[in-house]
């Protein structure tokens, strides 16, 4: 099993505590071991393949936002604690810039999360400008982008991860409209696999 960067930072202290507690307080050792296993599971990074042509989901989770912003459509995916938190590129393109925006840490499923800490990845595609946003949640304190300005993106490529709870948005290129969408609010999707919008990527 592949793991996202940062797993050692959180999992190793828990496993170390479990080893020490096994000698001095065995019941607490079980709790520490369980925490370590959960953290390792949370940072899992499985391989994914797109299930067909089109824009793939940038994240695992539930579609929580579908709305039109000017001439573009935004799709937001809420990630619960049980979802894989590695994010993927929805389409091929070139990274124009990666911008960190400090902010609050409201629950990622709430409307107030629009003002949360985030990292915006602006992308130029064959269909026009687009954006992928990694948004921190109530407990998330670190967003880890894997890409930088000038890099070429391939559809379903890993582009970052968020520690412990979050939301990931994709602002589709302007050539896509609501009629192209294959998902609606409440649908479950998988990063790099589920198709959000039909058409070429």
From TrEMBL:
Protein name: Protein sorting system archaetidylserine decarboxylase
Species the sequence originates in: Halobellus ruber
Organism classification: Archaea, Methanobacteriati, Methanobacteriota, Stenosarchaea group, Halobacteria
Transmembrane portions of the chain: 12-43
UniProt xrefs under InterPro entries: PS_Dcarbxylase (IPR003817), PSD-A (IPR033175)
Molecular function (Gene Ontology), one example: phosphatidylserine decarboxylase activity
Xref: PANTHER family: ARCHAETIDYLSERINE DECARBOXYLASE PROENZYME-RELATED
Keywords linked to the UniProt accession: Cell membrane, Decarboxylase, Lipid biosynthesis, Lipid metabolism, Lyase, Membrane, Phospholipid biosynthesis, Phospholipid metabolism, Pyruvate, Transmembrane, Transmembrane helix, Zymogen
Domain of life: Archaea
BP terms from Gene Ontology: phospholipid biosynthetic process
Pfam hit, one: PS_Dcarbxylase
Keyword Translocase annotated: no
